[in-house]
Amino acid sequence: MTLDYFYGQTGELFSFYRIPKALFQEPRFQSLSTDAKILYGILLDRMSLSVKNGWLDEQNRVFIIFTIEDVKRALCCADNKATKLLRELEKFGLIERKRRGLGKPSLVYVKNFSAESSKSIFQNRDFHDSGGFKIACQDPSKSRCNKTKENDTEMSETDPFYSEEAEGMSKRTRLEEYFSQALEVELLLRLCPDDEDTIYQIVDLLVDTCATNCKLLRIAGDDKPAEVVRSRFMKLNADHIRFVLKCLAENSSPIRNMKQYLLASLYNAPTTMQLSYQNQTNHDLAMRR
């Protein structure tokens, strides 16, 4: 294939992604991969579309919707690579993802690392990662978000994870931090990179369920006391989540209600996991005889 030369102003016929020179020139970004820098430029380009659509939160901050599938299509890469690049941008504080409820894509905030904001970007990143802010928008299909508040619950002295350090934090925020540690979410993401969205959906479901004010919760067709459900969910660990992911992957039947399926699987995981593994062990031993 023989390509033609550029003549005169023909170079201006193309549209371009803008990648800040600072990503290549400043020492703090030297270890950021070239692919991640390119992805940042693509996300910046998408920002202009969000501005036109009025995708702003209650603090007038622009967000975009850019899923792992979008990254795969933009960079022609696999799931693992797309997931790794998004985490890399998060690590450097260049983007921030706000996970939402079941079936909803994350909101992505492309961060401004200009000289004015660079002083505080790394100081603030840990706070934002913990979910310490509110998003007014629940449906980005609307041109402007409604200013709604989260259903925060007052802190109770009977909370199993209450501490003076947590005073002033919403119950939902404390639950998010609790499950992030108890379930070793970062470890799960490394072990099961293909299940990233499902892992975050499970965490969201656990938080929603434990934060509810309902007295009874429906699990596998039965109404169970909310305190009993909450107590069992608070005892889950990373092994239980991996077991639920395994069961979900092996299930070949259509799931009509994913929320109820996950609730039942999570509730029963502590008892069924050991029985399942014991049954598999017995089967393997029998096959060797």
TrEMBL record:
Domain Replication initiator A N-terminal: 15-89
Xref: InterPro entries: DUF6017, RepA_N
Chain ranges of the DUF6017 domain: 168-286
Coiled-coil annotated residue ranges, if any: none
Protein name (Swiss-Prot/TrEMBL): Replication initiator A domain-containing protein
